[in-house]
Amino acid sequence: MNSVPYVGRFAPSPTGPLHVGSLVAAVASFLDARAAGGRWLVRMEDLDRPRCEPGAADTILRQLETYGLHWDGTVLYQSQRDDAYAAALDALKARGAVYPCACTRSQLAQAPRNDEGEILYPGTCRNGLPPGAIARAWRVRVPDVSTRFHDRIHGDLEQNLAHDVGDFIVKRADGPFAYQLAVVVDDAFQTITHVVRGADLLWNTPRQIHLQTLLGLPTPVYAHVPLVTNAAGQKLSKQTLAPTLPESGRGAVLAQALVVLGHPPPPELNDAAPAELLAWAGAHWRIENVPLRPAIANAAP
Ligand code: GLU
Fold it and tell me: Of the ranges 120-129, 228-237, 289-298, which one carries the lowest mean pLDDT score?
């Protein structure tokens, strides 16, 4: 018998209401938890206050409920967790694992970028701030070794953080703690054993494992589910004007999410309500049937 109980989570950023792409991540993490007899928690990643849309967190919670995705326990809000992130940053400072960085965006404009288009930090402040420079952000030193990890959908992967990412930010120049630090602190705080999330975050995993190692936190099991794109191949998001989940015809939208996840419901469930579809999908859930490739969203219903 498995001695560690399964705890999963869905961690949306409340920058707007859910769309079918975020529904796919919610449904996948929900089904994986329920199929394992586990708990499923919700965490609002409202760290980046200027990017959060007023009311979006409540809208997301209402959308989850109307789609039959009922969570356990209380919702954790990252906007209320600064003390925990500050304590983690202090622990990293005490280990000499982080350093202050004075580089501005414009100074880094010419820096090389990785395959994801992120700046590969050239290490300007790694050995001390240039004279007269003012510390703006905090970066964590990354090792020049391969970080190996296993993803339940993508298999065995590895990344050299020094080559592919560089020393990355844990506290931003404009104030907030960075997603990478917050996610690691909160996954541990919420005793998350299994992370199931969108494939856009796959290559964030080695950064998170590095922080977990430095902070002495456990590493959850990871699975990254396919993204949903628009016809132009762009990830559905607020920026790409993804339509919000409809209030009516929820069964059809949920069925579409299940198709993306490689679990097409049988024809007799064509007109089924969310609860019935989720019950079917939970009973048939097999993560090995989830495809690797992104899906293109159906035209708006
Ligand atoms: N808040 C992130 C997002 O909405 C997800 C973070 C995670 O699942 O680790 O993309």
Answer: 228-237
Closest atom, ligand 1, to C-alpha of 15: 4
Q: Is the pLDDT of residue 29 over 90?
A: yes
In the chain, domain spans: 7-81+180-296, 98-179
How far does residue 51's CA lie from ligand 1's centre (Å)? 14
Instruction: Decide if pLDDT at 2 tops 60.
Output: no
pLDDT in tens, 181-204: 999 999 999 999 999 999 999 999
**180: CA distance to ligand 1 center in Å?**
10
CATH superfamily of 7-81+180-296: HUPs (3.40.50.620)
Nearest ligand 1 atom to the CA of 208 is 9
Q: Provide CATH code, domain 98-179.
A: 3.40.50.620
Ligand 1 binding pocket (C-beta < 6 A) is 11-13, 45, 183, 197, 201
pTM of the model: 0.94
Atom of ligand 1 nearest to the CA of 45: 1
Q: What is the pLDDT of residues 121-168, one digit of tens each?
A: 999 999 999 888 888 899 999 999 999 999 999 999 999 999 999 999
First to last CA, the chain: 44
